[in-house]
Amino acid sequence: MAENDNEEQNVAGRRRFLTNSGMAIGVGIVGAKVAGCGQQAGGTPDSAAGGGGGGGSAAEGPEPSAEAAPASHVSPGELDEYYGFWSGGHSGEVRVIGIPSMRELKRIPVFNRESATGHGATDFTKQMLGGKLSGDTHHVHLSYDGGTYDGRYAFVNDKASARLARIRLDTFECDHIVNIPWAQGTHGIFPQRHRTGLVFCNSEFRTPLPNDGSSADQTDPSTYGALHTAIDGETMEVRWQVMVEGNMDLCASDYEGKYSFATCYNSEGGVTLPQMMESDLDHLYVFNIEAIEAAVAAGTDTMRLGDSPVPVIDAKGANGQFVLRIPVKKSPHGVNIDPTGRYAVVSGKLDPTASVIDIQKIAQAFAGEIEPAECVVGNPEVGAGPLHTAFDNRGNAYTSIFLDSVVTKWNIADAIAAHGGAEVDPVKQKIDVHYQIGHINASMSETNEADGKWLIALCKFSKDRFLNVGMLHPENDQLIDISGETMRLVHDGPTYPEPHDAVIVTRDKLRPVKITPRTGPRFDMYNAWAQEDGIDLMEDNRVVERPDGSVRVYLTSTAPDFHMADFTVKAGQTVQIVLTNKDSIEDLSHGMCVTHHDVNFLVNAQDTNSMTFTAGSPGVYWYYCPWFCHALHLEMRGRMFVVPA
Ligand code: CUA
Fold first, then answer.
1. CA distances from 562 to 190, 263, 575, 586 (A)
2. Is the pTM of this model over 0.85?
């Protein structure tokens, strides 16, 4: 029974966990304004001041969920209405979740080594990853046309090694990874929304630029800078970079192709936590794309950093034609653009408010006709630790509140009216989430087709919401119905660490294929190999001796056969197995696993894939198909004879 008592105490204390530790950091910052708001329509953070988290709802336990929510139930055999694209954090992958069922449909390996597909070990992916086998994905965004998704690509960042990856949305496979020169901690990314144009990437960590040891004093942070990088979404080439003085966090683009945005949480230029939190105001960087592109095209105002060929504009320090700094409240995190394209919402993280910025005023601020601060037209108090904001199609915003563990629904027009002095409370409802919510997004929220149906709350801690599975608990992705006046929690979804952000896309935006299209850089590589070796990839089964002493073993397969029952290589020889799957039936995948050689990869219908390894000591080694493909799947195998060199 002692255990049960503990459980009850845990339940009572669950909302206080981290809220209190957040308070410790936040003392004197959010101070007495910190509110432990529970679920209270129309409540304001002030109404529960001093609660320190929890409020009345702390001891009530989880609210009823799925029973009252028939709308989210997708019966067996029925399809979801939406694709959700989730980043996988430091798993390095991207996940595809069906909405509203929350069923995990696919994991797309991107920066990680993945055993089932061979991603990171096959010849093409190994080359694409440049030898790195880990990554940290945070933000997935899809390519756009005319302000909404065009279904062609998804882009995702790697914070760990400053890379941007592209996923083809016809195949759901990563086809391109680009390194971002001199960037460190690449965090927020966002594609342009008027067409598949540039993808903007913020570097979060400030370093000497170039960071090649050539600076006079590496320890002096006043010489550091960070880079806002533009990458061409079609060619994946780095087009230009703009150097600024502060840390950049989240990224956004407008709907017209005029601006990109970056929140700056360290206008102080500090390198320690107290230094970074010193100032009460940080800012939103606004980048003027037209002015930057004109300077890059003309070659004026540009420089090169170290050995990188990418043109760089130095916009550190003061406002000018390229960069505007709009002051916003302390340590801003998220920046999100509403579906009308008119407003940017920036959340204060260490301040209980969100700032509403009128994008139409930015041109005047760039022209010097108004002060940058005059672009701020609303400042609703949404709760302690606001992070990110999603939108419906009815003028409402939904801000994730980390410290309070709530989602605050507020009305943009009311927030602007209140800022102008009107007696109106923009906050409409707060709903508890479980617990410590980070990102939030709504169905089609990042497009001009936001539909106000589903909201996803990506909670960093599940605490007591699921069965205990040891020290590391799942996170909790909660689905909230926002179609009515009142937000309604309908689903708890445990996830493996550690999704950061997600977008939710109507299923009719995508046109996935079922058979490998045999196009793109991977097939450029295999077609070149076939040509140099005189091979027809779809027909030939042959061992080709290479001039360097290695061998390429070309194999084809149809269920349940490899069309070469055995082949012979020498001990210590470099071997490339190139397997083509001739089957053209939907979902008839094969693969190649070579026993005792760490070789295991997937070959989809009509696909070709390959892996390189060193033949081990002399003997007989079976290779087999690891994907269930046929009643005789287990018989789908052959022998590799390794003979003495
Ligand atoms: Cu082919 Cu199993």
1. 44, 54, 17, 19
2. yes
